[in-house]
Amino acid sequence: DQSDTPPIAIPCIADGDTGYGNAINVKRTVFGYARAGMAGMMIEDQVAPKRCGHVAGKSVVPFTEAVKRVQAACDARNEYEALFGKGTGPLILARTDSLATDGFEDAIQRCVAFREAGCDMTFLEAPQSVDQMEEYCQRVTGPKLANMLEYGSTPILPPAELQKMGYTMAAYPLTLLSASIKAMQESLELIKEGKPTFDKILSFSETKDVVGFTKYAKEEGRYEC
Fold this sequence. Notes:
The protein is built from nine helices and six strands. The chain is an alpha/beta fold. The strands form two sheets. Strands 1-2-3-4 form a four-stranded parallel sheet.
Protein backbone atom coordinates (compact mmCIF):
# COMPACT_ATOMS: atom_id res chain seq x y z
CA ASP A 1 0.00 0.00 0.00
CA GLN A 2 1.63 3.22 -1.18
CA SER A 3 -1.18 5.58 -0.12
CA ASP A 4 -0.71 8.45 2.33
CA THR A 5 -3.62 7.19 4.44
CA PRO A 6 -2.79 5.14 7.54
CA PRO A 7 -4.16 1.57 7.33
CA ILE A 8 -6.55 2.17 10.24
CA ALA A 9 -8.02 5.42 8.90
CA ILE A 10 -11.07 3.70 7.40
CA PRO A 11 -12.68 1.01 9.59
CA CYS A 12 -13.26 -2.25 7.73
CA ILE A 13 -15.61 -5.13 8.60
CA ALA A 14 -14.33 -8.51 7.43
CA ASP A 15 -16.60 -11.33 6.29
CA GLY A 16 -15.92 -14.19 8.67
CA ASP A 17 -18.39 -16.35 6.75
CA THR A 18 -19.45 -19.33 8.90
CA GLY A 19 -16.28 -19.17 10.96
CA TYR A 20 -14.58 -21.90 8.91
CA GLY A 21 -15.29 -24.80 11.24
CA ASN A 22 -16.42 -25.36 14.79
CA ALA A 23 -16.58 -22.86 17.67
CA ILE A 24 -12.82 -23.03 18.22
CA ASN A 25 -12.24 -22.24 14.54
CA VAL A 26 -14.61 -19.28 14.91
CA LYS A 27 -12.48 -17.92 17.76
CA ARG A 28 -9.30 -18.37 15.73
CA THR A 29 -10.91 -16.50 12.84
CA VAL A 30 -11.81 -13.58 15.10
CA PHE A 31 -8.26 -13.40 16.45
CA GLY A 32 -6.83 -13.57 12.94
CA TYR A 33 -8.96 -10.70 11.65
CA ALA A 34 -8.25 -8.67 14.79
CA ARG A 35 -4.50 -9.05 14.29
CA ALA A 36 -4.95 -7.98 10.65
CA GLY A 37 -6.48 -4.72 11.85
CA MET A 38 -10.11 -5.34 11.03
CA ALA A 39 -12.54 -3.14 12.95
CA GLY A 40 -15.24 -5.81 12.83
CA MET A 41 -16.13 -9.29 11.67
CA MET A 42 -19.38 -10.77 10.39
CA ILE A 43 -20.33 -14.28 11.48
CA GLU A 44 -23.38 -16.10 10.14
CA ASP A 45 -25.55 -19.16 10.66
CA GLN A 46 -25.51 -20.74 7.22
CA VAL A 47 -24.28 -24.27 6.60
CA ALA A 48 -20.87 -24.34 4.89
CA PRO A 49 -20.29 -23.86 2.04
CA LYS A 50 -22.51 -20.79 2.30
CA ARG A 51 -24.45 -19.05 -0.46
CA CYS A 52 -25.37 -15.49 -1.32
CA GLY A 53 -28.23 -14.41 0.94
CA HIS A 54 -30.51 -13.58 -1.98
CA VAL A 55 -30.31 -16.85 -3.93
CA ALA A 56 -32.14 -20.15 -3.59
CA GLY A 57 -30.78 -23.25 -1.89
CA LYS A 58 -29.63 -21.76 1.42
CA SER A 59 -29.60 -23.79 4.62
CA VAL A 60 -28.81 -22.81 8.19
CA VAL A 61 -27.47 -24.62 11.23
CA PRO A 62 -29.86 -25.34 14.13
CA PHE A 63 -30.81 -22.50 16.48
CA THR A 64 -28.58 -23.56 19.39
CA GLU A 65 -25.55 -24.13 17.18
CA ALA A 66 -26.03 -20.72 15.59
CA VAL A 67 -26.10 -19.02 18.99
CA LYS A 68 -23.03 -20.93 20.17
CA ARG A 69 -21.21 -19.85 17.01
CA VAL A 70 -21.94 -16.21 17.79
CA GLN A 71 -21.08 -16.71 21.45
CA ALA A 72 -17.67 -18.09 20.45
CA ALA A 73 -17.03 -15.02 18.30
CA CYS A 74 -18.00 -12.72 21.17
CA ASP A 75 -15.85 -14.65 23.63
CA ALA A 76 -12.89 -14.29 21.26
CA ARG A 77 -13.50 -10.54 21.00
CA ASN A 78 -13.52 -10.26 24.79
CA GLU A 79 -10.41 -12.42 25.15
CA TYR A 80 -8.59 -10.31 22.58
CA GLU A 81 -9.47 -7.15 24.50
CA ALA A 82 -8.31 -8.75 27.74
CA LEU A 83 -4.91 -9.24 26.12
CA PHE A 84 -4.54 -5.98 24.21
CA GLY A 85 -6.87 -3.48 25.85
CA LYS A 86 -10.48 -2.36 25.79
CA GLY A 87 -11.72 -1.47 22.33
CA THR A 88 -9.05 -3.44 20.48
CA GLY A 89 -11.33 -6.40 19.73
CA PRO A 90 -13.37 -6.37 16.52
CA LEU A 91 -17.06 -5.52 16.45
CA ILE A 92 -19.05 -8.73 16.09
CA LEU A 93 -21.78 -8.52 13.42
CA ALA A 94 -24.07 -11.55 13.73
CA ARG A 95 -26.07 -12.50 10.63
CA THR A 96 -28.96 -14.88 10.16
CA ASP A 97 -30.29 -16.29 6.91
CA SER A 98 -33.07 -18.28 8.56
CA LEU A 99 -35.90 -16.11 7.23
CA ALA A 100 -35.73 -17.97 3.93
CA THR A 101 -35.55 -21.42 5.54
CA ASP A 102 -37.41 -21.21 8.85
CA GLY A 103 -39.51 -18.07 8.57
CA PHE A 104 -39.46 -14.50 9.83
CA GLU A 105 -40.23 -15.31 13.46
CA ASP A 106 -37.30 -17.72 13.69
CA ALA A 107 -35.01 -15.08 12.19
CA ILE A 108 -36.16 -12.54 14.78
CA GLN A 109 -35.60 -14.99 17.62
CA ARG A 110 -32.12 -15.74 16.36
CA CYS A 111 -31.24 -12.05 16.24
CA VAL A 112 -32.55 -11.60 19.78
CA ALA A 113 -30.48 -14.58 20.95
CA PHE A 114 -27.41 -13.26 19.15
CA ARG A 115 -27.75 -10.00 21.08
CA GLU A 116 -28.10 -11.92 24.33
CA ALA A 117 -24.94 -13.83 23.44
CA GLY A 118 -23.09 -10.52 23.22
CA CYS A 119 -22.92 -9.50 19.57
CA ASP A 120 -22.51 -5.80 18.83
CA MET A 121 -24.72 -5.64 15.73
CA THR A 122 -27.25 -7.91 14.01
CA PHE A 123 -28.02 -8.53 10.37
CA LEU A 124 -31.29 -10.17 9.39
CA GLU A 125 -30.63 -11.08 5.78
CA ALA A 126 -33.13 -10.61 2.96
CA PRO A 127 -36.31 -9.23 4.57
CA GLN A 128 -38.97 -9.26 1.89
CA SER A 129 -40.99 -6.15 2.75
CA VAL A 130 -40.82 -2.79 4.46
CA ASP A 131 -43.10 -4.21 7.15
CA GLN A 132 -40.57 -6.95 7.94
CA MET A 133 -37.76 -4.40 8.03
CA GLU A 134 -39.70 -2.19 10.44
CA GLU A 135 -40.66 -5.09 12.70
CA TYR A 136 -37.07 -6.30 12.85
CA CYS A 137 -35.92 -2.83 13.92
CA GLN A 138 -38.66 -2.61 16.54
CA ARG A 139 -38.16 -6.04 18.11
CA VAL A 140 -34.38 -6.43 18.08
CA THR A 141 -32.20 -4.15 20.18
CA GLY A 142 -28.90 -2.62 19.21
CA PRO A 143 -27.27 -1.59 15.93
CA LYS A 144 -28.51 -3.24 12.74
CA LEU A 145 -27.26 -3.70 9.17
CA ALA A 146 -29.43 -3.31 6.06
CA ASN A 147 -28.28 -5.10 2.92
CA MET A 148 -29.19 -3.00 -0.12
CA LEU A 149 -28.81 -5.48 -2.97
CA GLU A 150 -30.47 -4.04 -6.06
CA TYR A 151 -32.94 -6.47 -7.71
CA GLY A 152 -32.65 -8.76 -4.68
CA SER A 153 -35.31 -9.74 -2.14
CA THR A 154 -35.19 -6.61 0.03
CA PRO A 155 -36.78 -3.23 -0.80
CA ILE A 156 -34.16 -0.59 -1.62
CA LEU A 157 -34.64 2.44 0.62
CA PRO A 158 -32.69 5.72 0.91
CA PRO A 159 -30.13 5.86 3.75
CA ALA A 160 -32.14 8.54 5.60
CA GLU A 161 -35.22 6.31 5.58
CA LEU A 162 -33.23 3.31 6.78
CA GLN A 163 -31.80 5.37 9.62
CA LYS A 164 -35.24 6.63 10.62
CA MET A 165 -36.50 3.04 10.60
CA GLY A 166 -33.76 2.01 13.03
CA TYR A 167 -30.91 0.72 10.89
CA THR A 168 -27.37 1.76 11.79
CA MET A 169 -25.46 0.75 8.67
CA ALA A 170 -26.25 -0.03 5.04
CA ALA A 171 -24.24 -2.28 2.75
CA TYR A 172 -24.26 -2.06 -1.05
CA PRO A 173 -22.43 -5.30 -1.84
CA LEU A 174 -22.84 -5.51 -5.62
CA THR A 175 -23.54 -1.93 -6.71
CA LEU A 176 -20.02 -1.08 -7.86
CA LEU A 177 -19.41 -4.52 -9.39
CA SER A 178 -22.70 -4.43 -11.28
CA ALA A 179 -22.11 -0.84 -12.44
CA SER A 180 -18.64 -1.84 -13.67
CA ILE A 181 -20.01 -4.80 -15.61
CA LYS A 182 -22.66 -2.62 -17.22
CA ALA A 183 -20.09 0.01 -18.19
CA MET A 184 -17.84 -2.66 -19.72
CA GLN A 185 -20.71 -4.21 -21.65
CA GLU A 186 -21.79 -0.83 -23.01
CA SER A 187 -18.21 0.11 -23.90
CA LEU A 188 -17.65 -3.18 -25.71
CA GLU A 189 -20.88 -2.69 -27.65
CA LEU A 190 -19.73 0.77 -28.74
CA ILE A 191 -16.36 -0.64 -29.82
CA LYS A 192 -18.15 -3.38 -31.77
CA GLU A 193 -20.26 -0.75 -33.54
CA GLY A 194 -17.24 1.41 -34.28
CA LYS A 195 -18.44 4.25 -32.08
CA PRO A 196 -16.41 6.39 -29.61
CA THR A 197 -16.36 5.45 -25.94
CA PHE A 198 -15.50 8.87 -24.48
CA ASP A 199 -18.81 9.18 -22.61
CA LYS A 200 -18.16 5.87 -20.84
CA ILE A 201 -14.61 6.39 -19.64
CA LEU A 202 -12.39 8.74 -17.63
CA SER A 203 -9.82 10.90 -19.33
CA PHE A 204 -6.33 9.42 -19.51
CA SER A 205 -5.06 11.96 -16.95
CA GLU A 206 -7.88 11.05 -14.52
CA THR A 207 -7.12 7.36 -14.96
CA LYS A 208 -3.45 7.98 -14.21
CA ASP A 209 -4.41 9.86 -11.05
CA VAL A 210 -6.65 7.06 -9.82
CA VAL A 211 -4.22 4.20 -10.42
CA GLY A 212 -1.24 6.14 -9.02
CA PHE A 213 0.80 6.95 -12.12
CA THR A 214 0.79 10.69 -11.41
CA LYS A 215 2.07 10.27 -7.88
CA TYR A 216 4.63 7.70 -9.03
CA ALA A 217 6.00 10.04 -11.70
CA LYS A 218 6.25 12.89 -9.20
CA GLU A 219 8.11 10.71 -6.72
CA GLU A 220 10.38 9.39 -9.47
CA GLY A 221 11.29 12.96 -10.38
CA ARG A 222 12.85 13.48 -6.96
CA TYR A 223 15.64 11.05 -7.82
CA GLU A 224 16.44 12.01 -11.39
CA CYS A 225 20.07 12.85 -12.08
